[in-house]
């Protein structure tokens, strides 16, 4: 076997070092593919340049740097109606009667290994866009699957006002079959849009994305 390998190497002008490099590159590529995750970021700020949205973009940049697959959805750009509590989806295999953008968002949700939920704090709770999104997952609430979860929350006042927003997000995530909350980013005292540009929390969001 050793003589045959030696003959093959010399016949093709190769050497052991090159072959080892080829093997290692192939191994590293397979290892990278194995750990590549499908990440869905749900940004619920009604402001396209809002603070929580900017933190989402930094999280996305960090995760992309490490090679993960990213999908950042800004709910404000989508047509999503309110849940009508008709329960039709419970009788027809999980098909909502509302024909809007939520269908495609749910398809992305099902495929995601990692879910990032981002919201500003409004009246001590999540934004209307986030609550609407959560309610519209009702057609698949019995099969929300396993997700690694991250929270991004921005607030115009101090950290003590975000507890109810956390409760809203936790109440949703606790309906998953399995979940693991891997990280939380809080940007507090950020009333003005875009103010996080000058704050350390922007880099924290980037680093958290890299750590996924």
List segments where confidence is low: pLDDT < 50 over at least 5 consecutive residues: 2-9, 16-33
In the CATH scheme, what's the topology name of the largest domain? Rossmann fold
Strand content: 15-25%
Order of helices and strands: HHEHEHEHEHEH
Count of spatially separate domains:
2
Mean pLDDT across every amino acid position? 87
How many helical stretches? 7
CATH superfamily of the largest domain: Flavodoxin domain
Number of strands: 5
First-residue to last-residue Cα separation: 44 Å
Helix-and-strand structural type: alpha/beta
Q: Which architecture of the largest domain would the CATH scheme give at its second level?
A: 3-Layer(aba) Sandwich
What coarse outline follows from CA principal-axis ratios? globular
- Spatial strand sequence of the major β-sheet: 2-1-3-4-5
Q: Tell me the radius of gyration.
A: 22 Å
What's the main sheet like?
5 strands, parallel
Overall helicity: 25-40%
User: What is the C-level CATH assignment of the largest domain?
Assistant: Alpha Beta
List keywords for this structure.
212 residues, 40% helix, disordered N terminus, NADPH-dependent FMN reductase-like domain-containing protein, oxidoreductase activity, FMN_Rdtase-like_dom, ISF_SsuE-like
Description of the structure:
With 212 residues, the chain is an alpha/beta fold. It folds into two domains: 1-35; 37-210, 3-Layer(aba) Sandwich (Rossmann fold). Helices cover 40% and strands 18% of the residues. The chain is built from seven helices and five strands; from the N terminus they run ααβαβαβαβαβα. It has helices at residues 2-11, 16-35, 51-65, 102-111, 128-135, 163-173, 201-210, and strands at residues 38-43, 69-74, 114-120, 146-154, 178-187. The chain has a five-stranded parallel sheet with strand order 2-1-3-4-5, with helices on both faces. Strand 4, helix 6 (163-173) and strand 5 (178-187) form a beta-alpha-beta unit. Helix 3 runs parallel beside helix 7. The longest helix is centred in the first third of the chain and has 20 residues, at 16-35. The protein starts with a helix and ends with a helix. Residues 2-9 and 16-33 have low confidence and may be disordered.
